[in-house]
Request: fold
Amino acid sequence: MEAARTAAGRKLLATIEGSQQASIAAALADVAPDLAQLAIGFAYGEIYGRPGLDLPQRQLVTVSALAAMGGLEPQLRFHLAGALNVGCRPQELIELMIHVVVYAGFPAAVNGTAVLRQVLQERGIVVEPTASNPPQDTYQAGLTALREIDGEAGEKVISSLKDISPDLGRSIIDFAFGQVYTRDGLDLQQRELITVASLAAMGCAMPQLKVHTHGFLNVGGTREQLVEIAIQIAAYAGFPRAINAALAIQDVLHERAKEH
Reply:
């Protein structure tokens, strides 16, 4: 069984890496070859082949997690290249980094974009920068987007800030939803997939993770996809964060079941 899992893992890793030579095995051969085998067997042999998310979606989850956590540039570089290998478009990855600003801050997004630039340059991929065309009234556009995506859960968050920092609430609506969520390049389901993955990987934003679990379901995501995001996170952010994410998802699913 272990041999079959490793073989399956090597096959999927080859698809993502674009090479039959598993670089992780070569990199760890002289110090921790078992670690490489565990990574191949578990991450690629057991997780990546699961149904529920396709390979481009899994790479968006992985890239989002690595970018949001920060400080993991070699792995981020590998998985950005892997995302391109399985069909993600350069513009999607650029938009992913812009989206990460909202949840992990500008430093994480700028560092992630620098790594992406290197990957694109190495491949000779030229992306023409395009200026965004934000809505004329970004606050109203943001409010509309907030209601469509996060619904009552999102509005409760904004309302909870009224007595301590109403300007923060206004910035969430105007900037996050009015200027970022309304951009082209990613659809709303992709944006919520990225958001759930980022929050789950950071592991310190469970209330926000629950809000965006609602949001993911509101824009057409499924229970199965949410479970798979949590499982995927286990390989890149560890089991404690994956377990916490799964429990947050469970709470939201139970809450929605009661409402129906």
Remarks:
- Residues 239-259 form the longest helix (21 residues).
- The chain has three domains: 1-49, 50-125+182-259, 138-173.
- The chain has a mean pLDDT of 95.
